[in-house]
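Quick note —
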Amino acid sequence: MSDGRVRPAKPPLVRRFTTSQWFALAASALALVTAVGAALGVVALTRLATARTTVLDRNGPAVLAQLQLNTALVNQESGLRGFVLTGREEFLTPYRDGRIAERQQYATLERVLTGDDMAPARRETARVKARAAAWHERYAARVIAAVRAHGPDTSAAPRPGAGRRLFDDLRGALARQADALARVRLAGRAHFRDMAGFLTATFVAIVVLIAIGIAGALLALRVTTTRPLRLLGRSVRRVARGEYGHEIARAGARDVVELGDDVDSMRRRIAAELASLREAHDQLDEQARELARSNAELEQFAYVASHDLQEPLRKVASFCQLIEQRYEDQLDERGKQYIAFAVDGAKRMQQLINDLLAFSRVGRGGSEQRPVVSGDDVLRQALTSLGAQLEESAAQVEAGPLPAVRGEPALLAAVFQNLIGNALKFHGDGGPPHVWISAERHGDEWLFTFADDGIGIEPEYAERIFMIFQRLHPKDAYAGTGIGLALCRKIVEYHGGRIWLDTAAPVDGRTTFRFTLPAIDEEPPA
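Predicted structure written out below.
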């Protein structure tokens, strides 16, 4: 009874094996065809060699031996007739030589007349041997003995008619022997031709089998591998062109189908991720538009707020100073101190607003970056801006040759000014501040170094000092808004570089800042 479960359908035959298994099957089939062909070829060659041996090593020598046997017997008969007529012994020489040759040919025939196909020839040879023996015993031997005893004209010798009859029987046996050997020879030649034809047919069959095997193997490989891979390649190229909705074609051997499944699974994931990316991109575009609108509003707000805030601050500072001047005689020291606090707070608020505006405007100027004539020009611009502080502190600034870089001169001058200004501000009480500035080429960028002999910075604050409004000292100890180094980082990163505090320098020694800017290949104009 059925258990109610539906058995999965078996995959097509082509999908039941992998490509390597199909290759192994094709190779095995070719090897089998080659082995069968080789076996057939060996059989055909063996049969041809056997037929050739029969014709050349048996039939030919048998016919030759029969001819020589016939000649030997005829020579014996001729020699015997001459001896009978003359009685001279020298006429028996052909007879004696013929007897020797006769025995040799019997031995030869006995050696080559083997096998069932030679049975008729063996029978006829036995009859020839019997007839020859009868002729020798009943006529030749008696004639020779009588002539030797009584001379040629003796009546004691057997009658010549009896000898002719015996030799005629012998001739008939020789003729029948020759006919039997001729039939054997013709049969051997026919067999040899048949074997040659069989060999030719065998090699033709071998070539056909090998051709069929190769064609079958190529067809199997085309069905299982090459055609499915070509279809898979077409589908993959369509997907690569952006048709992510096109389903990958899957056919052929099992591993090729599995590869198609994997590629199609990857296609589906890419399509899903692409849909998600498009959705996210649309959201990002919307957010970017919203952010741009918000930034524009914030920039406008900051611009308006800065002017609206600075005007009341200027009024507060101005009126506080006027109060101090007009009512100076009526104010005690505490009142004057309060007015000084208000004026200082208004000025610091104004400076903070200006610094915030400068920080927010980095990278928003819209002017294209251009090669700077020389880094020395940027340094001179920064030193000019710090002229009063340099003169007041008697600072020394040592700078080596500075390269030409690509950027906005005003922004780069702000970086130089902030780093030198910090060196002047945090120089301590050990004498006039000293600043060293240098630049060196490192691959595709310039490395600038600003070192001073100030109070130093602890390594744990190396990252904090570049954050906006992060101060390491109270504002009553060192003036400033805490925006300078954050502004430097923003400007350097805007120009494609990076800035950091070199923590390898000793804390109580030099404070060393380093930053990089991309190098340019062209030479600065003269």
